[in-house]
Design brief:
Two copies of one chain form a homodimer. By secondary structure, chain A is an alpha/beta fold. Chain A is built from twelve helices and 14 strands. A seven-stranded parallel beta sheet of chain A has the order 5-2-1-9-10-13-14, with helices on both faces. The first copy, chain A, has a three-stranded antiparallel beta sheet with strand order 7-6-8. The longest helix of chain A is centred in the C-terminal third of the chain and has 23 residues, at 295-317. The interface between A and B is medium-sized, with 30 and 30 residues.
Chain lengths: 318, 318
């Protein structure tokens, strides 16, 4: 196995958009996506992995374009009935989506590793890329707010990120191990670049970096590491990144992102809207349009990020 | 609480038909149905109670008339997707049906008793009758065949009752307790009759009677106990009753049914097709049409069974 040419580290929706762009512009079986598991949680007796599922659905062409999460062609009979029966409805689970959670939970109960299950599910969904959890061990993001500590999905879905975020912790991360196929992907012969998708650095990428060995494996790969800034003109492309940065006392700029990833990345892809801020970056920059609206946007951004990484590789060799 | 006027002991589909007839001809809150739990099983991490669910759906007017099991207006997205993901599909679970299993399983995990959960679910489904498992403790019917022992649903659904049945056992029954609300229903002041629905005596009623205390509570109730024969002209109205009787070396006749319930019942409702066999019965008989095709059939049979029971009560007093 030569392994994938590109490894992407990704959270959920925002990251999966770029992962899909990479998937489309690269030859089949050239991409490995290592996905955040800090959002995973237990609900209705099921182990739910929102970021992994978003990645699977997006790469399989099954993502729901209207909702921005879950599956297309979804039905909601389960949820409607659960409401009648008095069950919890704050986390919406479509009937098709539910099959993934039930099947994965069953396989986890038999002792199978999450990474093996996800690799198999990706194959069954016809995805010609490797999709991997960062770790097979449970990592659970905890959000510390003035009103107390919240489990991630309580904060993110039930309370819609409304409580002020004081700090984050990643329960289980210190004891977690980088899963073997993720380690293999980062050490692969064929590897040319590592991309940090424009996911939330605090909520989506930090839980991954909290897993001992990931940061070291990324650096040891010896290939250019490029992040795409999730901040454009002081706002997040998607989700609460800017709000959280303000709550953490951080300026929502690409420079803050670059400093957050300092020592890990070689370059940052920055939106043209932030051209004036590029001088402040502690790393190389690539200016382009980073807001992905159409499928073509995703492919173009993927191509530009890969080209940028290739440039950094050449300059490193020079 | 005066309690219900009528208690029915019922298995699944065949029994639920008569339970619905009783429900329709009696005033609201006059019926308690005590249901077999020997068919219950664990599947996909869920505790599934097929007979209880058939009873709930039937009384709530939600039963699927085409399938004969499950819910009407059902969707099958979950099952379709589970097949794609490589999950087990031999036990078909509709999307709406699934909500009941998930919600019940969650409540069981919190330590709630099955009887309390089912009573609550019945209320939420708008059922003006009490629906109860015979016991809150797990009872699991085991089917002994020449090829070995099978869990009930393996035999009944996966193998479609094809293996020859040598004997049955009811794992857990000896240690199970008649649930408190079932005991209360059988001891209620208002109680006028106890009916054994035309369920399979071996597969559906025996697992209930294997629970210590049920037989005694039925007799101690001091009201007429009437069974409706599930055998008509040597055949079962529904399901494998006749096949099983032959495999057990029993003649498929109402007399065999009456002898099976000897000491428990005061009378047997027998189909007119078996009029010639009534002389062999060890108990009183009521001849009528017992095959329930239309909703009107169910109500008529329910009325006749209740009238028969009332007659037995009068004759006992005389």
């Amino acid at each position: 196995m030569k392994g994938a040419r590109v490894v992407a580290l990704s959270g959920g929706i925002g990251g999966a958009k770029l992962a899909l762009g990479l998937y489309r512009v690269l030859p089949p079986h050239s991409l490995a996506v290592i996905v955040n598991t800090g959002d995973d949680f237990e609900h209705l007796g099921l182990t739910i992995c929102p970021d992994i599922d978003t990645t699977l659905y997006t790469l399989a062409g099954l993502a729901n374009p209207e909702l921005g999460w879950g599956r297309r062609d979804e039905t909601w009979s389960f949820m409607e009935t659960l409401a009648v029966l008095g069950g919890p409805t704050w986390f919406r689970l479509g009937d098709r989506d539910l099959a993934l959670h039930v099947e994965r939970t069953q396989r986890l109960k038999t002792g199978e590793a999450l990474s093996g299950i996800v690799e198999d599910l990706a194959r069954r969904l016809g995805i010609a890329a490797v999709v991997l959890p960062v770790t097979d061990d449970p990592v659970r993001t905890q959000v510390h707010t003035p009103a107390g500590t919240l489990a991630f999905q309580d904060y993110f879905v039930r309370l819609r990120c409304e409580p002020a975020l004081r700090s984050l912790s990643f329960a289980g991360a210190a004891r977690a191990k980088l899963c073997a196929p993720a380690r293999a992907a980062l050490g692969a012969q064929a590897l040319e670049a590592i991309l940090l998708c424009p996911s939330n650095p605090y909520l989506s990428v930090d839980p991954m970096l909290a897993v001992p060995g990931l940061r070291e494996a990324v650096r040891a790969a010896g290939v250019p590491v490029v992040a795409v800034s999730p901040i454009v003109a002081g706002r997040a492309i998607k989700g609460p990144t800017a709000k959280i940065m303000r709550e953490l006392g951080l300026e929502p700029t690409p420079a803050t992102i670059a400093r957050h990833y300092e020592g890990l990345i070689d370059g940052l892809v920055v939106d043209r809207a932030d051209a004036a801020l590029v001088a402040d970056l502690p790393c190389s920059a690539c200016l382009t349009d980073t807001v992905m609206v159409t499928p073509a946007d995703r492919e173009r951004l993927a191509r530009e990020a890969l080209t940028f990484a290739a440039t950094l590789r050449r300059s490193a060799r020079a």
